[in-house]
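Quick sanity check, DUF3817 domain-containing protein:
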Amino acid sequence: MKKSVLTRYRVMAYVTAVMLLILCGCMVAKYGFDTGADLTFVVSQTHGVLFMIYLAFALDLSSKAKWSFGRMLWVMVSGTIPGAAFFVERKVRADVEPLITDGGLAPAKA
């Protein structure tokens, strides 16, 4: 697997997680303090688009790393929980880095 597959996933995991935290703050401002409705709309739409890109990159990584459906689902769902993507990204990076080679998927160890 190429390193770029993991890098794309990692970047989108961080971006999506940060945008979700910002969205949570906007939602508190909108519903708790009745302010920032326009900002909340913009942030929610931006987060939605970025989340779809995150899902595509997570699917690409999971197919190349040959994960089970459950693991793929776990990684995708982590993008919906504020802050969870930060922790899941570290675990994914640690598990996938040994599979990275220049020419493709690393051979399995005996």
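Posting the structure with no commentary besides this: The chain has one domain: 3-98.
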